[in-house]
Specification:
Blueprint (H helix, E strand, L loop, with lengths): L1 H13 L1 H18 L2 H26 L7 H19 L4 E2 L2 E2 H26 L4 H24 L13 E2 L9 H5 L1 E2 L1 H18 L2 H11 L1 H6 L4 H28 L13 H11 L4 H24 L5 H5 L1 H12 L19
Antiparallel strand pairs: 1-2, 3-4
Helix pairs in contact: 1-2, 2-13, 3-8, 3-9, 3-11, 3-12, 3-13, 4-5, 4-6, 4-11, 4-12, 5-6, 5-11, 8-9, 8-11, 9-11, 12-13, 12-15, 13-15
Subcellular location: Cell membrane
Pfam family, one: BPD_transp_2
InterPro entries: ABC_transp_permease (IPR001851)
Length: 348
């Protein structure tokens, strides 16, 4: 058994793309075979994981390891709920639904925290792992603390959620119709973000700069491009995507924010890191891979609802245990050469 496992891991190490495609194929096949309610739940639960993963790809590809994505999801989810609550639940401001204003606030707060992280890492050359952990821990404590001040509890009040948007005609297509054309706005934003992330990283000059910043910053500097600015832009972009994921999840799926324990985000930012490692830094692959973890999250919820005689604590570990399995199997994913390294213009 041990020899078979080692051979499997060696194959995955030599063929990471094949392993990633296999995992994605298994996830999609699993999703296809599940009931409709499970499929729609999986799509909704994939939103924060997928968008945070795309953001993490940009940061890490530029050479900055942002493990503070979990913190960005927390602050964006919390601030979006607070914004809607203060603006007026179910109302509109300047003709725009307060839910959309809440989404914008969540993104801006996430970008603010990403900027703080970028300044600490790029300007002050702090250890990126420690700085990312600091962002997470600050967010983990700040959100429930602020909630206690406003609501007297670590959990916020409930607010309205985004309703489903139905595309006439297309929503009648079997399976694809109710999944993609009769769903909430955050799912559409996830799909749009996937295309935007892939195009920006793979088909634009900025995307090539991001890759060069993480692989060979000296060459990029020699070509006359400011490596610091590229890295700042990439980290801020990770804040945009994470903010979109956290706020979209809070306003589209939860309608509230639970600040107890690991908060309502419950490790989804860390799962996002495993997701883009599984996909070898490909935005589309990361989104498809997120369906695997989101599907297991749906399984966890279904098992709890069904009342099986399995300890709740054990059921809740299902998504996180799957992350460990993935990281063990896909342990040879190649990081960008300069990931985690500081760079000053003119360095040899």
């Amino acid at each position: 058994m041990g020899k078979r496992f080692r051979r499997t891991r060696e194959f995955i190490g030599r063929h990471p793309r094949a392993a990633s495609l296999s995992a994605v194929a298994i996830a999609l096949a699993f999703l296809w075979a599940t009931p409709a309610s499970w499929q729609t739940s999986t799509l909704r639960l994939a939103v924060p994981i997928a968008l945070a993963a795309i953001g993490g790809i940009f940061a890490e590809k530029s050479g900055v390891i942002n493990i503070g994505i979990e913190g960005l999801l927390i602050v964006s989810a919390f601030s979006s709920i607070i914004a809607v609550y203060w603006l007026g639940d179910g109302g509109a401001t300047m003709g725009v639904s307060n839910l959309w204003w809440g989404l914008l606030v969540g993104i801006l707060v996430s970008v603010l925290f990403a900027l703080i992280f970028a300044i600490v890492c790029i300007e002050f050359k702090a250890d990126q792992i420690i700085a990312g952990l600091a962002i997470w821990l600050i967010s983990l404590g700040l959100a429930p603390f602020a909630s206690r001040i406003v609501f007297g509890s670590p959990n916020t009040a409930s607010v309205a959620r985004f309703g489903s948007v139905t595309v006439p005609g297309l929503s009648e297509i079997p399976i694809v119709g109710y999944l993609l054309f009769d769903t909430e706005p955050q799912v559409y934003l996830m799909l749009a973000g996937t295309v935007a992330g892939w195009y920006l990283l793979s088909r634009t000059t900025f995307g090539r700069w991001v890759v060069a910043s993480g692989e060979n910053p000296k060459a990029l500097d020699t070509a006359g491009v400011d490596v610091r600015k590229v890295r700042y832009a990439a980290v801020l972009l990770s804040g945009v995507f994470a903010g979109l994921g956290g706020a979209g999840f809070a306003l589209g799926t939860l309608g509230t924010f639970a600040g107890g324990g690991d908060t309502a985000i419950n490790g989804r930012g860390f799962i996002a890191i495993a997701t883009y490692l599984l996909a070898n830094y490909h935005p589309v692959g990361a989104v498809l891979s997120s369906f695997l973890f989101a599907g297991l999250n749906s399984l966890q919820t279904a098992l709890q609802s069904a009342g099986y005689a399995i300890p709740t604590e054990l059921i809740r570990t299902i998504p996180h245990m799957s992350v460990i399995v993935v990281l063990v199997l896909v342990g040879r994913t190649r990081l960008p050469d300069a990931a985690g390294d500081h760079y000053e213009s003119g360095e040899d």
